[in-house]
Amino acid sequence: MGLVDEDLSVLLIILDGLGDSRSSVLGNKSPLESIEQVNMMKFKRRGATGLIDPISPGVPPGSDTSHLSLFGYDISKEYPGRGPFEAVGDGVPLREGEIAFRANFATTELRGDRAYVSDRRAGRLPTEITANLSSILNVECGQIEGVNFKLWPSLEHRAVLVVSGDALSHQVTDNDPHITGAPLLECLPLEEASDRRGAERLSRLVNTWTRRCIKVLAGTPENIERRKRGFPPGNVVLVRSPGVMVKMAPFQERWGFRAGCVAAGKLYRGVAKMLGMDVVEVPGATGMPDTDIGAKLRASRRLLDDHDFVYMHLKGTDVCSHKGDAIGKAHFLKRFDDSLGELDADFTSSNVLAITGDHSTPCSRAMHSGEPVPLLISGPYVRADGVARFDELSAMGGSIGRVLGRDLMPMLLDASRRTVELGTRPTPRRLNFIPKDLAALKLS
Ligand code: ZN
Ligand code: ZN
Asked: Is there a smaller number of Cβ atoms within 10 Å at the N or the C end of the chain?
């Protein structure tokens, strides 16, 4: 097995919401176009560039669906909903089959027999009030028809709702209208729900739970006090993005890589944990624009000592985009380029480095868009192109061309010299690499 020694390791850096459009505040350039790219160009010399559509052209992904797609998971078949990724990333001990929703304490005003959402975050309710209200609801509304409803408080107004019981399906709608001024919604089964009866049951129970919560929350000392002081009370729980905890196919089984993850954001840690990656803690990593990028790069390089794939995530780009802050995004990208100096130029003579985004979040829209994101793959066996910069438009001329999210892992596997020819079958499972645990023939 002489070739095994030549397998390269991969560092994949995902800058959240990287893709952008040109902005007048940056002299009609995109954030990537506006910055000097000293270290990125250092790796570009051994690199190929292109554009990647995380799901498919024109489809704005969520960060969870785009990451799964980039990691080679078929979201039309393997996506259990967002809730469990958030819950697992938040440290909630979810058991298989339990249903998790993202939840917010919010403020509604009653008009007739409808409740209209006036503040989706209840004035960013302090974390300790969210914790108090959650424990009250867990006692008062914790069980309906033998099904358990448990709120796990998180930061500020946020929480995770875990529903456990038999004969339930997570395929239901949000009670959250997602906009202020709209009424609290009835939770309904999805039209395409495969388990219609389970979805009908869960939606009916969620509606009962929501009504009970409203009654209880109106009379809590915390909310009475907030009203008195002119603060918006947390008088309703908005729930959204339900998903069911499942055992996902491990990343290592699918791609042969022993993977580690350097990410601070809960969702990203949750995705990595659910795929069986080792997630490390990095002091100074905040999941915000102020994060210590150099510390994350150093941690990634250390992880490569005993892993052969490291996924490093940076959220600062997307945070700036959602605020419409093109200058802040450019500043963060400049800091990223400076920090890349942590890796020597010869890093890519024995490793593969890939830099991309999970979707575009143009600052002018302050929302995810369906536009592609630039991709750079640098390594000793990469067919380098002559593209002189790394940005949305330059990447159009790169040698990778335009690919889909699901193409990324095969490309990284190939760039790290691990792929085998299509149709080679040393294993019952169809794989495009030779796994370490081959079934040897016993000679007696
Ligand atoms: Zn994202
Ligand atoms: Zn975003």
From this structure: C
